[in-house]
Amino acid sequence: MAQPKYRIATIGSHSALQVFKGAHDEGFETIAVCKKGSERPYKMFNAADEIISINSYKDFPKIQNQLIKKNAIVIPHGSFVTYMGYEEVEKLKVNYFGNKKILKWESDRNLERQWLVNSGLKVPLLFKSPKDIDRLAIVKFMGAEGGRGYFLAKDEKDFNKKIKPYKLRKYVLQEYIIGVPLFIHYFYSSLTNEIEIMGMDIRYESNVDSLGRITARDQILLPKLDPSYVIVGNIPVVVRESFLPRLIEMGEAVVKQSQKLAPPGLFGPFCLETILTPEEEIYVFEISARIVAGTNPYIEGSPYTALKYNVPMSTGRRIALEIKNAIKTNQLKKVLC
Ligand code: ATP
Fold this sequence. Notes:
alpha/beta; Rossmann fold; D-amino Acid Aminotransferase, Chain A, domain 1; Dna Ligase, domain 1; 3 domains; five-stranded antiparallel sheet; 13 helices; 14 strands; binds adenosine-5'-triphosphate
């Protein structure tokens, strides 16, 4: 029987331009599902062969049948999961690249931590209560808002003072690790059982990354000045080569553990969010079980993908290639869970 003509679809946001470019490079047509008013980039960059406009991202399930009729394969990205919520994503009937069952494990900070710890990775300490803070702590609010309002506290007294404007919000208290935050982009193929490092980035966050532009003398004059972690963009980085063996093992460990937690486990793109200390310890503070926006500087491929592929291989294109290989070898079901 002839294969239907599959199309690649996603929500127009986050890393959609990269996903669509990669899909085109591998010969797929694309469908952008855009919130009304956000269609322009997908037209301007010839990214979408078709645009479906919706009033709110929450309306995505309502247009599912249209996507099913067009043999669409939906690619999840950060905004996709954040805007819809993992419970809604789990209910989707349309073809979906990846394992939906793993989303719960990355969306809940406690489950996520369990996953990382059981993978043998080093994670920052968690303080149960403000009175336990015995070193510099970062106070993170639940429900990611890109680090808005996060603050540092050195002890209980400092915490009580700084939490005042956020009294009603839920938070976690995590040990603040001083080092270089490094975001590592992986791809695990469930067709070949191989892991790849696709690239790495450093985030540029406002205002924490600009505090060093004024001297401590001037900072002291601004008593209300607290660092915040609102992401502005991503900067490519190549890590010291001697770190690579450990980073590869770390990626393999989370995949192996995920196979126990939510069979068939994590596959496709994912990211470990880490901090590398001067003692060369690698702390993991978060995992993203899908394509991350830090891959966007590598639409033409990264130094790592240049080593492995003879064509410019972005993470978006790698997803399309995996789908193409699955179709070719009659294993499409294996990558749509
Ligand atoms: P997102 O979901 O977009 O990744 P988020 O709101 O869940 O963001 P985190 O990624 O947990 O927030 O943290 C935001 C930023 O805070 C990080 O990019 C990093 O710069 C800093 N950060 C987080 N945890 C720590 C830590 N334990 N030690 C030092 N810095 C940290």
